[in-house]
Amino acid sequence: MSSTILIIDDEDKLRNLLSRIIKAEGFEVLEAADCKTGLKKIEQNEIDVVFCDVKLPDGNGVDLTPKLKLKSPSSEIILLTAYGNIADGVQAMKNGAFDYIVKGDDNNKIIPLLYRAIEKTQLQKRVKELEKRLYKKFSFDIIIGTSRSIQQAIELANKVAPNNTTVLLSGETGTGKEVFARAIHHAGHQAGKSFVALSCSNFSKDVLESELFGYKQGAFTGAVKDKKGLLEEANGGTLFLDEIGEMPFELQAKLLRVLETNEFIKLGDTKTISINFRLIAATNKDLKKECDEQRFRSDLFYRINTFTIPLPPLRERINDIVPLASFFIKYYSEETNKKDLAPTEEYLQKLKDYHWPGNIRELKNIIERSVILTDNDEINIDTLPLELLSKQSENTKTISAFELTSIEKLHIQKVMNYTNGNKTEAAKLLNIAVTTLYRKLEEYKII
Fold first, then answer.
1. pLDDT tens digits for 257-277?
2. 264 touches 272 (CB < 8 A)
3. Which of 70, 86, 254, 388 has a CA 20 to 30 Å removed from the CA of 49?
4. What are phi and psi of 253, to 5 degrees?
């Protein structure tokens, strides 16, 4: 798409000459003879670069610059003057001008300068587009569900997002706690700053401490150079501590001190580092009960329990299962280059009948598996794992042992076909040991 250039100059001959030069480069050019017309043009059109004379009949180009930038922040302004002076040049740059050049003396600079200004404008547009995509990817709009419980959680999250309040997300594993944490971050004052996530259940006490606080070279064996901790990485942004209930008891006191003082000391250091971040914590445990049983510090609990948002399990959101499944089917269809895949009613009913102990994460994994195993444009129950096929609603009969055996055999055959006979890959998809797969293959006489 060609860039559009606006020339604001009351000298007809100079304006027309500059217009011809710029048009010869393949750009679209608009013209204005005064400030009022120039402001109207930039309001009505998407302008990339403005060439503006300093002296105009109804104003001054230096003073006009911030008004132009206000109406079109991504436009770059290049000021032209017959008699350059340092004071005007300095003020022009302060007001947001891209450059300030003298007519006649600097004519050979105009086209190279124009291309540099366009390059900056296009970069700003790309940044804005990326910011829009980022917002769309992590906004509350991507949280699927119309059930009252999930809508209540979204309402609470929306209310707390603009504040710096510490948030505690509670709910079973797989209910979307990190999705909510990111949405809160991107809807708050920290948007555009760091979002640092850490699961407290993935590390031992010593490793978790060094990850959080960082360390100085020589703090312990293996500390060959300074390391910045995640607390420091999150400065100005958000720190998301997942499964905070798994944090070792000794570390909880250190975290509490950071939250109270906004200061910490790296391992092996003596210097205090000041930080300012928002904490969003998540847990699948009953932290009050953990406090009563002295596995979690009550003072830390009351510090992070300022604003709690409970996230409902999927089994309490039956009406949301089908729209969630549709979303994941579309996503994984595009990922695997399979277009227009549609689930059968029987398939969707099986999803609704299941109790979903792994919640949305489990649904996502099962849909991915189904899309991979589907050979045509229809996703049917043959692609479901046995635990879903054997779970029936109260209104349906119990599957017989013979039916289960037939279903299992068919399912293993489909997976083996998909992996072209690769037993290791098939066992991984079936979520069973390779030795179990060999036994099943022999039992069902699958070659």
1. 999 999 999 998 889 999 999
2. yes
3. 86
4. -65, -40
